[in-house]
Structure formats: structure tokens, C-alpha cells
Design goal:
Layout lengths: L6 E5 L17 E5 H4 L14 H10 L2 E5 L14 H13 L4 E4 L19 H18 L3 E4 L14 H12 L2 E5 H11 L6 H7 L5 E6 L3 E3 L2 E3 L8 H11 L6 E4 L7 E2 L2 E2 L2 H23 L8 H4 L1
Parallel strand pairs: 1-2, 1-10, 2-3, 3-4, 4-5, 5-6, 6-7, 7-10
Antiparallel strand pairs: 8-9, 11-12
Helix pairs in contact: 4-5, 5-7, 8-9
The structure holds fe (ii) ion.
Fe (ii) ion binds next to loops.
Length: 306
């Protein structure tokens, strides 16, 4: 399976929908979140009625890609009973997304309080999850890419490095990777003292199977670095982007924000300044992409180049 080369875009996060002018931006791609638009499992609908008009509006405006957080993809419930199969797969087909990414943590039908429950990095677990991932990708009918997570503690019982686990998972499943560079940075802050290495991670995973890159920011709170998505993209993550773009060619770079007020070293920004900060990050990401792949290499510029 191949992925289209789209360019630079944003995640369509519910936290931004009321104030960020998505429709005014020349985005190459918009990443939609299945969890935030899907209808309840005990109802007859596929999509929340309140989201239908909005989703059709953005679908008419931008190329879309799909993202799943709480599908139960890697949990222990029967795959056919999960939100991933019952809601996310039909949503992906309805919107015709060219790939789907899912998050590497455990979740079940309750889908609450599971944000940083990392997978157990063992061979047996990689093999169990590979079987689920392969089956799920077949249902999607498009590449399924697994996003490396930020986590506070390693899952008990883990006996291999995360990057070796991910390499084994995609090799066994025939699936892909979704590389979140801020999650790498966050893990290096929190686990660097016990040997976490971004360089080793990037040297180990199959970079040619990276479909998409996430960029974000976060903050230190109570001696822990958090992947809060409530600041502009942090500086070291820009350096990682240049490095990765020089080594592979993903289909998209997506910026993630999840707040109605971005934090910066000079304080909490109001909405106009938060908009400006996001637009500045977008411009910087486009520059990095164009530097790596040349002008006319993104969805919004390839027609001009032709
Ligand atoms: Fe992410």
C-alpha cells in the first residue's frame, strides 16, 4: 500500500473548532479525529448529529486523513466489538481517507482515563497486537499507522526497547508507523536518565514505513514533562523534523494543539495571539517541508508548480 504525498496540515481538534479559522487556511491536509465525531455505540448513527454539517464542510475544503485514539485497537476486547471496527472503520470509508493512524496504548469500551497506558514492550505482546493490527488494516483497506506514545511510566513486564517493539510490530503486521516527534521529546525528558534515546529510536524504526509526522508542544509541571499540546511546537522538535525529513518522505506533517489558550514563556496567549502562534508554526513547518522536498511538493503548491 502506498500513501499520497500531501504536505503540511493541522489536526482538527474539538478544542480549536470554535475559534481557530480552519476554513481560511491553505492547508495541504486536515487530520480528523474519529473519537470526537463518532456516535455512541448503543445508538443507530455513525456520526454525532452535531458534527455532521461541520465534517461535510471540512471534507469539501481539505484532503482528510483519519486518526483514532480510543478505538480499543490494542486492548483485549474482541476486535469486532471495538469502537475501531464499529465506528472508525465505517467513518474512514465514508470520508475516503488515504490512511488511518492509531495510538499505541491500551483502551477498552469505557475509553476514559487511558491516555498514558503504554503497551507492554515484549515480543509476545508485539505478536498479539500484530495480529489485531493486520486484521484491522484489512478492514480499513488503507494503510494503518501506529503512533508512538508519550508515557509517564513503562508498562510493567516490558523487557525490550520501545523502538524494537514497534519495528517488530509493523514487520509482523504489515502495517505502518505514525511518528510523533513531540512524544519522542517528552519521553526523552522523562526517561532520558534511564536510557531513553531519540537517536537510537530513529535509527531502529523502519523510517520508510512512516506515513505521517506529528508536531506539538508541552510543558514541565511538578517535575514531569507533559505532552499537553498547549504551547507552540517546542524548539528541539523542529530540529528533529529537519533530521527526519532528510531521511525519509512521509505523506504529511501535522501540527497538534489542544487548548483554547496557548502557553508561552511570556504568558498565556489570548485567542488572536494563539491564532498567530499557530499560523507561525504552520509557516515554519511549510518551510521545513519545502527545504527538504522543494517548492511545489505540497498539495497546495503542486498545481502551481505544474
Ligand atoms: Fe500525536
Amino acid at each position: 500500500m502506498g500513501v499520497p504525498i500531501l504536505g503540511v496540515g493541522l489536526q482538527f481538534n474539538p478544542s480549536l473548532m470554535d475559534w481557530f479559522p480552519f476554513l481560511d487556511q491553505p492547508l495541504d491536509v486536515l487530520e480528523i479525529l474519529f473519537d470526537g465525531m463518532m456516535a455512541p455505540l448503543d445508538g443507530p448513527g455513525l456520526m454525532l448529529p452535531t458534527m455532521v454539517d461541520t465534517m461535510h464542510e471540512v471534507a469539501a475544503r481539505f484532503p482528510l486523513v483519519g486518526h483514532s485514539n480510543y478505538g480499543g485497537d490494542f486492548g483485549f476486547d474482541a476486535l469486532g466489538s471495538t469502537p475501531a471496527v464499529r465506528r472508525h472503520v465505517p467513518l474512514a470509508r465514508a470520508f475516503g481517507v488515504p490512511w488511518v493512524s492509531n495510538h499505541c496504548f491500551y483502551s477498552d469500551a469505557s475509553w476514559c482515563d487511558v491516555w498514558s497506558s503504554p503497551l507492554q514492550f515484549t515480543r509476545d505482546e508485539a505478536d498479539r497486537l500484530a495480529a489485531r493490527a493486520r486484521a484491522l488494516q484489512e478492514l480499513y483497506g488503507v494503510p494503518l499507522a501506529h503512533e508512538n506514545a508519550a508515557y509517564y511510566r513503562t508498562c510493567p513486564g516490558s523487557d525490550m526497547q520501545e523502538e524494537d517493539f514497534l519495528a517488530r510490530l509493523v514487520e509482523r503486521a504489515g502495517t505502518y508507523l505514525h511518528l510523533d516527534l513531540h512524544n519522542l521529546y517528552a519521553n526523552a525528558q522523562n526517561h532520558g536518565a534511564v536510557g531513553y534515546s531519540i537517536a537510537r529510536f530513529l535509527d531502529t524504526i523502519p523510517l520508510d514505513r512512516v506515513t505521517c509526522i506529528h508536531m506539538a508542544g508541552g510543558r514541565w509541571l511538578d517535575n514531569q514533562y507533559h505532552d499537553l499540546h498547549d504551547t507552540p511546537v517546542v524548539e528541539p522538535v523542529w530540529d528533529l523534523l529537519d533530521d527526519v525529513l532528510s531521511r525519509t518522505r512521509p505523506g504529511a506533517v501535522i501540527l497538534e494543539y489542544e487548548t483554547d489558550a496557548l502557553h508561552r514563556c511570556d504568558g498565556v496567549l489570548d485567542i488572536p495571539r494563539s491564532v498567530d502562534a499557530i499560523l507561525a508554526d504552520l509557516e515554519r513547518a511549510r518551510s521545513a517541508w519545502d527545504q527538504a522536498y522543494g517548492p511545489g511538493s505540497r498539495q497546495t503548491t503542486c498545481q502551481e508548480a505544474a
